[in-house]
Each structure stands twice: as C-alpha cells, then as structure tokens.
Amino acid sequence: MHLANNTTVEKFNLVIGLGHSAYKIPSSFFSLKRLTHINLKNCVVHLQSTSFRFERLTSLCFHNVNITNKMLICFISCCPILKSLTLIGEEKHFVGSDQYSDLVQLFQLLPLIEHLEMNCCPVKCFASGVIPQSLANKLVHLRALVLHALSFGKEDELRFVILLVTSSPNLKKIKMEMNCSPTEAMSQTAMNLFELQDYSYVKLDHLDELEITNFGDMKPGMDFLKLILAKSSMLKKVRVVINNNISVSDEVKMLRDVLWNPCASVGAQIKFERA
Description:
about 25% strand
C-alpha cells in the first residue's frame, strides 16, 4: 500500500520463502502504473478486476506463482509492450479449464516478445487443445528461446517446441534442457511426427547458437536436432550435452547420425559432450 502511493516505482522484485508461498499479492500492487519489470516468486496472484494496465511493462517473470490460466491470459493482455516473459512452475501453479488453455491465444498477446522462457508445466496447461504446426501471426521479434525439462517423448510438448521454432523466423539462440528418462514411454505419434509433417517452408536464417542439455537418444530429439541443422544457414555454435545414461557406443552412433545429415551452415561448430 505504501508503494502504491509512489508513482516512480519501475522495478518490482518479490521473492517469498517456500514456507510462505500462500502469500497473496494485494490489489494495491496493480496501482503501480509505471512498472517496467515484475519478478514474482512463490506467491499467489488473483485478479479481482481487469481494469489495470501496465502500459510500460517490458519484463514479466512468474516463478512458482499460483495463478489460473484465465487470469494469466488477462494479466498478459494488460501488458501491451511485453518483451520478456518467464513462466516457471509446477502443474499446481497453473490451473484452469481447457477453455483458457490455448497456446494460440497466449502468443497472440505477445507480438513484441523478444525473450521467452518456460518449463514443461505451463506448456502442459496451455497445450490441452489442438496445437497447430505454426502460428499465423509469427513471433518476428523473438530472439531467445529458453525451455526447461521438456520431453520429446510426449506429443504435446514436442508439438509445442515445433510450434515456437517454426513460428519464430528471427531466432538467434535456442537453449533447451531435456527431460531424459530411460523408462519414459513414447507415443507413436511423437516417434514419427517429423515424418508426418512438411517442414520445407521453415527457415532459421538468423539462428547462430543452439544448446541442448540432458540430451537422450530418443528419435524425436535426434529428428529435431537434424531439422535445426538443416534449416539454419548462419549457425555457429551447437552444444549438445548428453545424458550420462547414454552408452559410449550409442553416443558415437548419435554423433555419426548427426554428421551424416545435411547442415545448412558450413561454419557450424558441433560439439557433443558429457554432463
């Protein structure tokens, strides 16, 4: 309430201890009209009204923030010039009905986004409906894509990554952490998804750096890596950190498989390493 009377506040960083994660952001917070950066961790956001506007907000980070899908969409819609968005949390933090779990709707509200960081849980919540192969309105300003704990053995998460990459023609950096589990089941659709769809239209002429950590020997992961290499003419650095459960012989096969496939960039440095 005290800060709400200060019209000059521009950056708001609130990190609550894990034992107090039920703290609810008060309505007075939405009176901070001049905010350019918001970083909230381990708290609850409940919108009693959607009349607020963060006209100057360029950076929004929600880390373990309890918010419904509907409220998250409303919150983002009130930030018209958002350039950086981070959504990290567990499934319990993003709740709501399928009516509001729409990836297309979410990205329509981010026309100026330059940096996007997410983990698998908000992806699951927003990927409950049909995921298109590409967005009609491209994310032409997106330069950096950071994704955590994704599994290419799950069709929705795989389609989500493909949607983002194929809809972001000006990407410069992709950084991904895979969820590699030897016991994880893989859907048949995920296994053959790259053969079932046409990617001849994809161009990543500005991508110069790709990093994938905890990389396994799943076929969809290898197909994704080969697609990026084939479509990125300016690629300079490729770093693939292999999961320690992968045997040396399988690692050699993976590297041989990658090197035998087309690479659009003649100067790309491809490095495989152990964690």
